[in-house]
Amino acid sequence: MNYDFTFGSKIQCSENEKKHSLILLKEILEQTKKARTAGFLVLGQDSDSITNAFLKDSVKLIGKGYDYQAVEKILEIKMAVRNAEGIHLLEMAMVKEGILSILRGDPVSLTEEILFSFLGTAIYEAHKKEQNDEFTRHIIQLSQGERTARSECGFWLLNASDNEISFLLKAFDWESLGVLMKVETDAVLYRIYSNLSKEAGKLFRERLQMQKAPDAKTINSAENKFRTITAKISGSKETAAV
């Protein structure tokens, strides 16, 4: 389907209709998060909970194991046959692009950007403001957690300086850090977020939410990386003291 002038004229609808489409947008993002954490097959198993009929049918295509090209072709045919206009066409296009984004393995944040492009800047900015406020509330809640930790890495973070934590964050890959933070306390997580920009913090939170529970081998590998990096930090401090 070409997103040209003809398409643009056919999806014209009111701002209230677009705002109502936020319900669908959030449903698509929920499916995206499930796909990232549990894989494609779980989408087909959980499709009965989806309220939008076109999204439900589209998710079932993923659950059947069809590849990207097949799903894209099927969805385009369904859209052409229905010959919808206004909010109905707009929402079908959102579903199509959301489903294809899931199949590409796009980050949830990118899927969100794609979907909001259909709704316009004003609705997108209002949503971002709401998200920022929610993230701020989340950080405040973490800051109120009891000062305790569950791992060697967690105890180190509670006692390290901001400079030391900044060094760790630059040297430690986020996937390995996420492995160790997956089961950490609020107080430890707050030390991470307070040393990240808001955008970086939101991205880390998104990755942490999508990350699967690690096995013992993965945890051990992450702990070894942590010890290597903190040993360098300790070495730098001793050199500076001399």
UniProtKB/TrEMBL annotation:
All residue ranges annotated as the Flagellar motor switch protein FliG C-terminal domain in the record: 157-231
Organism domain of life: Bacteria
InterPro entries in alphabetical order: Flg_Motor_Flig_C (IPR023087), FliG_a-hlx (IPR011002)
Protein known as: FliG C-terminal domain-containing protein
Organism expressing this protein natively: Candidatus Thalassospirochaeta sargassi
